[in-house]
Amino acid sequence: MAEKQDAMGRAPAPSHVNPYGRVDEEVAEVAERDERRKKRMKCFVYLVAFIVFQTAVILIFGLTIMKVRTPRFRVRSASFNTFNVATANTNPSFNIQMLAELGVKNANFGHYKYQNSTIEFYYRGTKVGEAPVPKARAKARSTRKFNVIVDLSSTNVPTNLLADEFRNSAIIPLTSQSKLRGKVEIMKIMKKNKSTNMNCTMEINISSEQLGNISCR
Ligand SMILES: *[C@@H]1O[C@H](CO)[C@@H](O)[C@H](O)[C@H]1NC(C)=O
Ligand SMILES: *[C@@H]1O[C@H](CO)[C@@H](O)[C@H](O)[C@H]1NC(C)=O
Ligand SMILES: *[C@@H]1O[C@H](CO)[C@@H](O)[C@H](O)[C@H]1NC(C)=O
Ligand SMILES: *[C@@H]1O[C@H](CO)[C@@H](O)[C@H](O)[C@H]1NC(C)=O
Ligand SMILES: *[C@@H]1O[C@H](CO)[C@@H](O)[C@H](O)[C@H]1NC(C)=O
């Protein structure tokens, strides 16, 4: 052990033993640790903020754009090609060819592709006509309109029921029912089967030969 000694015979204190140097180092170390902790804290805060932001974006995205809404299927209007209505008490009847405009309202941010179906018309519970609904595709956020021709006939309606109706009013009340089965596809990633029911009530005004009071639920 050959430690150098100074004139006074004391071993020179190594720098890390120097009380002042040691304090300096400790201060520096504490400051550095503090700095690192602050940095980590900052990083953490940024990360949390980022996650919150991302979650909000995904939520908003999911609740608006990616949300699958049920399309609405309804009767929009109609005109008549033939209009034969006999209101006579003895032999009341109707034979009407109706050109009905139907609408498939698709509020989704993606198209709605539906299969072949049929639409049926009823007079007070008795079926009086039907028409095919060909398969098609309703574009994103739009209403697809198309026409169907349907022959409405009172053949199966009890005569007394019709006679009563015509005695009291000059209208033919109708209901229409249909079900579309199809698929909503949003941005190629979201595909979901979605069916929609039509349930409309309407009235044919016999004197004006017009369809009115259409109400769908
Ligand atoms: C859909 O209807 C059309 C005619 O309207 C027919 O040619 C086609 O085969 C039908 N498709 C299915 C899957 O029933
Ligand atoms: C969606 O409908 C099709 C027929 O239109 C069927 O084959 C398929 O299994 C359905 N998918 C789901 C998830 O219900
Ligand atoms: C259609 O709506 C009427 C009420 O307006 C209701 O009594 C009837 O059950 C509905 N039919 C279907 C198939 O939803
Ligand atoms: C049928 O139409 C005529 C002419 O537009 C109108 O005067 C009459 O009030 C209508 N009837 C009903 C029941 O709405
Ligand atoms: C619609 O229906 C209401 C009652 O349901 C009736 O008072 C009104 O006259 C109808 N309007 C038309 C245009 O048929």
Automatic annotation (TrEMBL):
Bilayer-spanning residue ranges: 43-66
Listed Gene3D superfamilies: 2.60.40.1820
Database matches in Pfam families: LEA_2
UniProt domain Late embryogenesis abundant protein LEA-2 subgroup: residue ranges: 102-201
The entry's keywords: Membrane, Transmembrane, Transmembrane helix
Domain of life: Eukaryota
Protein name listed in UniProt: Late embryogenesis abundant protein LEA-2 subgroup domain-containing protein
